[in-house]
Amino acid sequence: MQQQRVLGGRYVLAGLLGRGGMAEVHLARDQRLDRLVAVKVMRPDMAVDPSFRARFQREAHSAASLNDPSIVAVFDSGEDTAAGLPLPYLVMEYVHGATLLDLLRDERGVAPRRALELTRGVLDGLVHAHAHGIVHRDIKPANVMLADDGQVKVMDFGIARLLEQGGADLTRTAMVIGTAECLSPEQARGERVDARADLYSVGCLLYELLTGRPPFLGDTPLEVAWQHLREQPEPPSARVPALDHACDALVLRAMAKDREQRFACAADMRAEVEQLLQRVTAGPRPVLAAMAPLDGAPRPTERDSGAAARRGSGGRRRGRRVPLGTAVVAVAALVVGVAAYEAGGSPTPASVAGSATGAHQLLTPDLTGASLPGARAELRAHGLHLARVLVGGCPEPAAAAHRVCQQDPVPDSPVGSGAAVTLRLAG
Q: Which residues are catalytic?
């Protein structure tokens, strides 16, 4: 019988809840207080990077300072060892439920009243966080939990910053902090952010809840970031005609390019949501196209930040949704391109970073049997990037555990430089 692992001499790991880009989340029992908790353990290959460890500690300090039912609580933090390497961990409130990303995938869209109620719950958490001087900076469906009792809970304060600190150590040339699909224009420019950056992201989240897809889609994070900078989103009612036009006004104000034109604070936006709830009734549920399984394999559960993060897909431009699991979008060309644009030029994402369908054709490598770190390094060496990681559902039941058993595109497929590859690992 395999011996259960105990972290910090206190937390007995009982089972894997989910995997994210930099950590795994386990269900655990706190032996001292005899209660179930969720323990977020940084992957050993990530823990050797001081910047990731600093982000991990930032999440502990930011979330632990907040005490609100709309925010996933952090109870403790510590560091263990694995094969002689440091293994930081966070001990969090165990929330039995799903993320809003799960909701979008499983329910194939959200009725307007429900979308507004969920948004109000997110804003409840942000009102509390902002009152304590903390800007989340990565609000997105995968970072919002919906508990079984209906409580909305904001989680993953890994890149949150105190307002007076301004995030200068993280927001610098060649590194733009946030997830591309919910990135405020000021974040994309690498500027100092305030609470209104979170409100822009909430507008993006509400947009997706109302329509079943993000406001902007593209083949790369860079392309999506450029759209946040330069393009106006279509009103939600252009995609779901039955929506009340007051929903359009709410979303478009939250997503104003100029933050001075957004809501002044989360409380103001919440008040507008509550007023709109009084007039909006549950309307027809929009259809959300689901991503087809790879080669007909069973659809597995994909995890992000400790909860299921199964992703839908939408169809704009080339119908590609950039990966949501990466919280730090590092695009050096973006800052250069913004400077050129603001100086009077008009560079396009293709001219800055190269088009995924341009002249530089590549063939995808065969990653079957590779470990995840090895596959990631191989993709990087070929000028490609990892889009998503799916766990389980391999066509070959005997596939080696934690090794790549399937990929999309398949090996030797012609792709453009910077193309995204989805991997499936054996559970």
A: 138
